[in-house]
Amino acid sequence: MPIHDLDCLTVARRRKALCTVHAVRASGRETWEALVGAPAAAFAKSCGFGGKAGQLVLVPGPDGRMQALFGLPEKGVRDPFAFGKLALDLPEGDWSVQAPDDVARDDVILGFCLGAYRYSLKTDDKPTGAPRLVVTAGERKGLAAQMAQSICFARDLINTPANLLGPSDLAREAKNALRPLGAEVDVVKGSALDEAYPLLAHVGNGSDRSPRVVVARWSGSSAGKDAPLVSLVGKGVCFDSGGYDIKPSSGMLRMKKDMGGAASVLALAHLIMAQDLPIRLELRLGCVENSVSGHAMRPLDVVRSRAGLTVEIGNTDAEGRLVLSDLLYEAGESHPDLLVDVATLTGAARVALGPDLPALFCNNDSTAMLFAEAAEHEADPLWRLPLWQGYAGWLKSSVADLNNIASRPMAGAITAGLFLEHFVKPDQRWAHVDSYAWNDSSRPGRPEGGDVPGIRALFRVIRSLCGTNDTKKT
């Protein structure tokens, strides 16, 4: 599938044809007349417009052109998604958005683009007239636009039905997205995969759609041999039936999204490359399907991992950690400066934090602080949960080094993180993100369907490694 070309943005040359949105706050009512004129301000108030965040009202302009007032959150509250409402509710035309100086221009562009996103396979669903945001030529190729392209690409991948996106398809999409940006991309399959990634193979070989591992390497144009090395790992389970420990039908309804971790790190890698950050980058995607078949893994199977540890399969529906383990261990062989994995790993994380807060696990407090600061700066929340070693004994097995499921039905997100930690070197800076990768309902900038929360925060952390973050909110 192609990277989105963002038709919702336009570099307008005829300023006379533009309509204007004035973004205002309830606390600044005295300025509205100066922006739109006294008659228009009075008309807006008569329509019930009070500047409340998310409110939008169309008002007549002095020259006959349409204009609008749009309510912002109060000063100090950042919400890029709010501008997604403009892409949904403005009428067709080219619109310029004028906002207070404290509102980042990138937030306007990103929110508008994410609000304009839609996914449909309907044969008669032809796009109708939609508003377009007027930007400069530089903004059209800038960070916000590239970030929107990467996020929309990931959304497309997650939203694609599982019959149209199997392991080989996901691997192909990764290759097609990254090679044009200069990455070396290898796709491992067959006996080579069985030998190199035995735990992953034990999951994926249960499906007639055989597994794939994507390994991509890239260096920025100004990255020297000593440039920071960042390694990304993503869980790409294209459909998860649960295996022999099969999910109930209700639990399978959204399992096309179980490759959301792979989509997340693929979007992040695409953005890093598009921005040409001065780093070295490695990316690994475990692309599999967890199926029920005569050759699927069984409860109480024991498999020797790439790391040499033996793992007992206590539950075939705890497959994501098996997919990640061999990849994490291989990633550590390159001694990266930062190792990050993203996965739709546990329902326990959702019970604890809900759909909008990805759970963050770090084995290093200073690294965790970097993520926390980036999440706050970008208004892209991550919530740290502990790698509580007191629960490590719950993963014991009587016949193997580890069980892939805990012996107690509690703290499932934590024990999953503890399982993964066995495959990460003790001195390795590592972050594990347990994400939902889905919006259950539509909100401005966040339509129902696949999504990749946390990516903006992760990107800021990676930029900080090479000292390219500025002081502005971007």
TrEMBL record:
GO BP: any one term: proteolysis
One Gene Ontology CC term in the entry: cytoplasm
Key words, A-Z: Aminopeptidase, Hydrolase, Manganese, Protease
PROSITE patterns: CYTOSOL_AP
EC number: 3.4.11.1
Presence of the UniProt keyword Hydrolase in the record: yes
Pfam families referenced in this protein's UniProt entry, alphabetically: Peptidase_M17, Peptidase_M17_N_1
Domain Cytosol aminopeptidase intervals: 315-322
Record GO terms (molecular function): manganese ion binding; metalloaminopeptidase activity
InterPro entries reported for this sequence: Leucine_aapep/pepB, Macro_dom-like, Peptidase_M17_C, Peptidase_M17_N_1
Coiled coil: none
Assigned protein family: Belongs to the peptidase M17 family.
Protein name: Leucyl aminopeptidase
